[in-house]
Fold Carrier domain-containing protein.
Amino acid sequence: FLADPFSNSPDARMYKTGDLARYMADGRIEYLGRNDFQVKVRGFRIELGEIEARLGNCKGVKEAVVIAREDNPGEKRLVAYVIAQPQASLDVARLRAELAPQLAEYMLPSAFVLLDALPLTPNRKLDRKALPAPANDAFASRQHVAPQGTSEKALAQIWQNLLNLEAVGRHDHFFELGGHSLLAMRLISQVRQRMGVELSLADIFAQPELAALAEVVAHAAGSSQQPIVPVSRDQALPLSFAQQRLWFLAQLDGGSAAYHIPAGLRLRGSLDQDALKRALDRIVARHEALRTTFVQEQDQDPLQRIAPADIGFSLQLQVLTGQADAEQQLLAIATEEAEEGFDLLNGPLVRGRLVCLADDDHVLLVTMHHIVSDGWSADVLTRELGLLYAAFSAGAEDPLPALPVQYADYAVWQRNWLSGDVLQQQRQYWQQTLAGAPSLLTLPSDRPRPAQQDYSGKLLGLVLDADLTRGLKALSQRHGSSLFMTVMAAWAALLGRLAGQDDVVIGTPVANRMRAEVEDLIGFFVNTLAVRVDLSGTPSVQNLLQQVKQQTLAAQANQDLPFEQVVEVVRPQRSLSHSPIFQAMLSWQNNEASDLALGDMALQGVAVAGHTAKFDLTLDMTEVGDQLIGTLEYATALFDERTMQRYLGYFQRLLEAMVADDRQLLEQVPLLDAVERQHLLVELNANNVPYPQDCTIHQLFEKKVQAQPDAIAVAFQAQRLSYAELNRQANRLAHHLIGLGIGPDDRVAICVERGVEMMIGLLGVLKAGAAYVPLDPAYPAERLAYMINDSQPTALLTQRDLQKRLPTLALPLVLLDDDQRNTFTERDDNPVVEALGVRNLAYVIYTSGSTGNPKGVMIEHRGLVNYSVDAARLFGLSPADTVLQQNTLNFDLSVEEIFPALLAGATLAPSREIFGSEGTQTYGIQPTVLHLTAAHWHTLVAEWHKQPEVAAQRLQQVRLINVTGDALSAQKLRLWDEVRPAHTRLINTYGPTEATVSCTAAYVSHDAVTGSEGSGNATIGKPMANTRIYLLDAHQQPVPYGVAGEIFIGGDGVARGYLNLAEVNAERFLADPF
């Protein structure tokens, strides 16, 4: 509970929740999970430290760690890892039995793993990611199960041959066993040959386990380098390594335009079309790469096939002269030309269109496939086109010298040279450098990532002015870095902050033309390096610059290993949804572009439509004059333009901060400008709503009693209690407690079953001025004893049947059974308790604690009244409603059920049966409002989807379901959308106990269920009345839109703190700085 730095009130505080969330574009909040070692399982908030502390006290246990694992999607379970004391023998059954009396059922680990030692990081810290999945469990690691059936056995035999394995099991994973892209292609061929069916690469990537793939099959129709020398064209000509990877990708995603290189040039003036065509033909004749196609025989590696030199350049002429809509047609033609697919088997892989707009106005469109060209090659083509056109238009011969070697010669040389020690050294470097690197840069996106990568993209421009460029150059010089390295450091820092990752891998292309023989060749030479940047430990600008410099130089020293081999060495987790190793690029254009001159014509570049994005983000920078000019290429399947504009703004602010002070920590540089900061901190929290600030919760209830005394307040089984009768009985209990000396801020424990007695007990305690402390009868006796000892109640309310579960105490014991309540005083007027105000305690609820013991959260009347009034409005509660009360008092969902209903004059229906359970007796009670945990709702929806008629019957009168406690899964939301009755609405609320039940809310609409925004889960909405929500980073600075930040909660609902835990209060309840 911290001081609120964003509030104008000097005593305002906010609660540091430990929950992660992010802002959506419309200001709603998406819940992402826990930020610390506190987790939610089945809707229950659990401090892992409490379980670890209890486990550590078990006999024979030296050390214990507990984590929540989700090895199966949607099945989060607690797993305990235990180290035995020397000479001790641990038995899992005994550990479970020893823990059971001490912990609530939902806190018991589902699995226990006995280890000799806990895995540690190089810094000797616990490596939680390295803890193994439990064996012999529902989410166990792969175990050998023999193949079953004809298809599985036949497929297993093929795998064994390809992968050189003695045995393959039905649950084995092709890529985990050592499979890769080329082996996958050979697998397709052998399946075709031996099993007579056709598989695709997409099939293998989508179903890499043997049993799943068999199911698809069953239903499928000083230089030690040698010089580069010409090789005989009679021999087989292999692809270069880069070509081979691009060829594989082309097989995977068909005719994607992601690897097209389009260009457009407007030619104004007198054009010699014959000279232009001869020049283009000559370029094709000079460069074998432009005449190359690619063939594959059987299951062999693909080979190059080179067409004769006189094949010519494929140039199509289109005449638009005199047409009114010529410019619009030109745009359509340019788009079509850029996006039309290439046939790698038959070619051609370079083509063009000459569009005639007038006798003196032409547009030349040229498109090449990346497998035969790259950025350097485009400059070679430009230079040669100018020289050849000038010669041919003047009637001269070809002025260009013959090329000593061709691309196919380079490919053969590359495969011969990159072997032995050279290959081993570079493989080892990349394996060590990228070991353990994250497989995905989890940038916040505007839409969920598609299952298969969508290469659609757009461009956004960036200009860094002369002052900033000079400052960046000076900064680079001071630290012995290149301008590229400095920009790389800033780019890495930004990506890390946006993604919430301190380990970032960025790709960067290198020309890979270090030999003179290939400088004048057209072909695919470019290689891609992966630069890994460590952002942990909050480095300063100067520290990060040095690290990026070292990493970049080391990567460039090992640049000969083609990227596709780096992927095979590192073996990252593969997915069709994103590129391997990295998803963000930094490209630096520093090769000198050729100035094209075609006679005396005026030349102008033409923007070619149809941009693609091979990666999530690619920042392309170049130095032009005294400025840095850049473009940001982004995947439109993931990002909107406004998001990219913000990202570029953050990037420029980072660069400016680096220039201003290279000693500062980059993580502390504010990314937000004043407008975005004002919007996130102030405008999204503009929800001040009047409520009765001078009334306690029971005083508001008493007003409702006056308004509708005869209305039914409680309906439990066959019992019915009116508002007036409930008030009278609660008053009698309150006067009895006052007679025992109980008053404001005293704590009264209550251990009762759900029913009429519970409601009388709660209201009686509140009316006496005290705070109730719920004790769940189902808790272990040891846990109940701790809560009683910690809260030091002045009295204990219970029932005769529950007495034996409670320890013998030296304090007043009040039984709430029917016959016992008759012994209370006859006085039944509303008590008036002097000195009782809205800042006094209303209740203390115990939550899971990291110290090994639960923590008592102290909630005041002000927070409870604010919440209850707003919740009654939000839920639309009225006297016509019946609200089911099924949650234990120890879970603050019970507060959500009880008090808003009573303030609205609704009927409260306590139940000792969980909604939806078989055999539940309704006693004529039909609830209209339900409050469920997310886990309970998920279970019900799955059942109702199987039996829609049950859903219709159960929800016949239910108009509203409030779900809280965890994220609502997208899959269950879709099922709900199919079975929900038209009259039943769904609302999603979020809030920790420390902020008085719920503090954000959102109704879940059909559009929210069927849309694709964010993670696919339902959002938790916006702040409720008089609540402030801040999403902050580790330095308590506001995070940008879409970026995950820890939820801090301010406003009237923040708890007083934890009972008897002053140090923890100082850590978790902070002054509100906003």
Q: What stands out?
A: The CA atoms of residues 321 and 843 lie 84 Å apart. Residues 230-406 form a domain with the Chloramphenicol Acetyltransferase fold (CATH 3.30.559.10). Confidence is low (pLDDT under 50) at residues 136-141. DSSP finds 30 helices and 40 strands in the chain.
